[in-house]
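Task card 7
Instruction: Convert sequence to structure tokens.
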Amino acid sequence: MSRHLAREIAFKTLFQLDFGDNDVEPAFSRLLEENGLSGDNAVFARTLVDGTLQNQEAIDIVLARFLVNWELSRLAAVDRNVLRLAAYEILYREDIPNAVAINEALEISKIFHSEEAAKFLNGVLDKLARGTEDDGEVK
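Output:
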């Protein structure tokens, strides 16, 4: 459950940054404190946030290939940031199985958006996962 909470904190941080001129550190630190997350799970959450932000441009380019008749910028902010976080895990984290990254993304989507949104995200993330090779490169 703690890794799930770490993902929720990472998502909330990315969401806040996407919505305004927020700094990552105060937003992230406040969420850690509010949720009582520390230790290895806090480090995991930090890795997810930093990795997603550092690779966001490349992630957005890859996601655009899998969004049929949609633009990333026109998606709801919840969907956009769930996709970015899951895509970071799929593309850059070999230690996390794609199925786990997708399942966690869908759970976050259901909590913060809707069941229908989760179905849409599942289709996009499934295509992304099937379109990556073992080394994380997109075919």
